[in-house]
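Entry for the shared binder. Reason: the reviewer on the internal report wants the predicted structure included alongside the sequence.
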Amino acid sequence: MQMSFVPILLLPAVTIGLAVVLLLVANLLNPKRPGRVKRMPYESGMDPIHDTRRRFGVHFHLLAIAFLVFDVELLFLYPWAVAMRPAARESVTANPPIAHRQADVLQPPVSDMAGKAGIDWTPRPAFLGGMVLILLLTLGFVYDWRKGIFQWR
């Protein structure tokens, strides 16, 4: 066996050994006070004594689904922000600030400032796509709010 495989085989062995040692130490040091409540299975916060067809509120599920939808939509904003970072860096470092130019130090006209600085104010398609996503997120949040999903009854 080559020596290059030793770290690969050593990692699972150390991981399993550490898990076994931690479980044994926890079992030895854990206080043992068994009781009726501690022996009952945990069933998502409900007592498993009642009938299995007992009704419960759908509000928990609506809130969970709304959370998942907003969470997944926010995950789409991360790659967008990473993609927009180079564009922001280009617009900041492309030209020196207006105040550093000698001719513009004395009261430049306000309408000329953007043109002389070389700032391009036309929005990029990727930026517009991100703004549409943020707008849809906001509209969905307002819709859920008006429907009362966030009201805890």
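Summary line for the report: Residues 59-93 form the longest helix (35 residues).
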